[in-house]
Amino acid sequence: MRIGDFKESYAADEAVFSTSTSRFWLGGLFVLLAIFPFMAGEYLLYMANITGIAIVAALGLNILTGAAGQISLGHAAFVGIGAYTSAVLANRLALPFLLCLPLAGAASAFFGVLVGAPSMRMKGLYLCITTLAAQVIFEFFFVHWESLTGGIRGLNIAAPTLFGCDIGTEFGFYWVTLVVVIIAATVSRNLFRTRVGRAFIAIRDRDISAELMGINLFRYKLYAFATSSFLAGIAGCLWVNHLKSITPEHFPLHESIRFLAMIIVGGLGNILGAIYGAIFMTLIPEVLQTILKFFEEIYPQAMSFLFPLQTVVFGFLIVLFLVFEPHGLAEMWVRVKNHFRLWPFKH
Amino acid sequence: MDFFLLLLTSGIAVGGIYALIALGFVLIYKATSIINFATGEFMMIGAYIFYTCSVLFGLPAIPSFLIVMAGAGLLGLLVERTILRHMLGQPTISIVMVTIGLSSILMGLAEIIWSSDFKSFPALFPRAPLVIGDLIIRSNLFWGFIVALATVAVFALIFKYAKVGVAMRATAGDQLAAFSMGINVRSMFTLAWIFGSIAASIGGLIIGNIGGVQPNLGGIGLKIFPVVILGGLDSIGGAVLGGFIVGIVENLAGGYLDPLVGGGVKNVAPFVVLVLILMVRPYGLFGRKEIERL
């Protein structure tokens, strides 16, 4: 039984997965993820894909809001910019998917820096409201720059291919999503072990102290905006290639709030938290639908409450997690794990 | 020129209503440093309570109005006691998200209770539009403006002269000093929520009277952010001025630019102005610069 946490070398101290047990379970998870598409049907694969895309976006927001402490109410707009960039590049220049992916990220990152630029002079709530302004303004452009975005009718793109394989199917796209999610999670986990990532955390904890320690606040906040919206752009590119069509309605303020809810429910500033949160918030509507279907036999109009009930449950989840479990699902999971690890010697 | 004056007057009228809603927001922010993203939903609930009283129960306007105030006050009290009291001293993001969650709950509940159909009010004010020279102002808008200004004035008087108002101002200024002068700071927080909720619900009632009620009426609450940030989050005078600026800007921009780009300018223009003003004055026009110590 493991009772202590002893590290004998720096390598062991810096390891991401500190025990062989966690490495074993991680391997198990990968095997499971690799078998999954062969067992699952079309619907489950679809759910897996949209969950994966949500994870990438949530990981991005987690860098900006969770690690660097800058609240962004405009994350959906960045996902939208990535999606539109990818769609336009694929349609007009016929660029391959593999090239669209980084370019979509880069376009989002560019606008992320633009939105982050006011952080030179303001912070906190005022900065939060500028991101809200960005959301509103970008949404306006999605709708009204019709020559580029197709207005409210949106754009359609052809099924993407990768190395000659068709990845337009749910099965094919699953592998793309899986690889991107793994890369995104690894990159953002390692980011927090570098100078830049630690600077983000210092800024979140106390910006003035961070500045006194020699961190250039403005520059690092811009880095945070850039990396966060880069991941958002990647998520957007995946999103448009998955659904193969795009309209401005897909990126409203509500979607930005949903991303924030993901990282809060999961656990702010925690990579695993962002992943759990994204999975949880994507599955909740499905679970609700199943429950209501069950009630439909007793009360036939139950389904008409689906949408408002989703809104209410969504709100309650945010409030309850913040009041009772501010560190989110990640913390709950650690507690459950510790309970079993220490059982039966509780104290 | 007539077109300009028309836009200007309706901008001023709408601005007065924005000022009232922003007042509800600033009251809460000043006392508790909580930025209330559910202001729009408080408006919506106020409008629905009025609809229920006057249309479903057939009560006359004045009793319905009193019930709205009581209901809104109760809502504010409930929200403060059950949720926001636990959030004191939490990081900004938690507080922002709690009020966003609250707005989601209220919106969903309203849709479950009153359905998502459009509901309109009975005529509250005389129908005849106001005519000044060549200008014609819709009566709903004009009377709404008058009611909004009257409410703002009542709140201003309470703050200036009533004992409660002075105590609230003291709490906002320096909590510790207020404590030592025997002010019950906690009940001041509750009171701020009650007042804020009442101000927002009267605003919602006026807007509902102009354009009817729907669960997404609270979306108008988003426009409150340009209003309050323009004026500076902690300035009541700034909120009133910000209300007028936003009302006028959105009407002028909507009137002149909408035909050029095909609509929607009205909603985005206040935010563009907001970003421009914040570039020059990071704390809004009248906001206090926070002095931070380590």
Give a structural overview.
The complex is a heterodimer of chains A (347) and B (294). With 347 residues, chain A is mostly helical. In chain A, 73% of the residues lie in helices and 2% in strands. In chain A, the strands form two sheets. A two-stranded antiparallel sheet of chain A has the order 1-4. A two-stranded antiparallel sheet of chain A has the order 2-3. In chain A, helix 3 runs parallel beside helix 8 and helix 3 packs antiparallel against helix 11. The two termini of chain A are 14 Å apart. The relative contact order of chain A is 0.15. By secondary structure, chain B is mainly alpha-helical. Chain B is 72% helix and 2% strand. Chain B contains eleven helices and two strands. In chain B, helix 5 runs antiparallel to helix 8. Chain B starts with a helix and ends in a 14-residue tail after the last helix. The interface between A and B is large, with 47 and 49 residues.
Number of discrete helical segments of chain A: 15
Ends apart, CA distance between termini of chain B = 55 Å
- The general outline of chain B is globular
The Rg value of chain B, from CA coordinates, equals 19 Å
Please list the strands of the largest sheet of chain A in the order they lie side by side.
1-4
CATH class of chain A: Mainly Alpha
CATH class of chain B reads: Mainly Alpha
Rg calculated over all Cα atoms of chain A = 21 Å
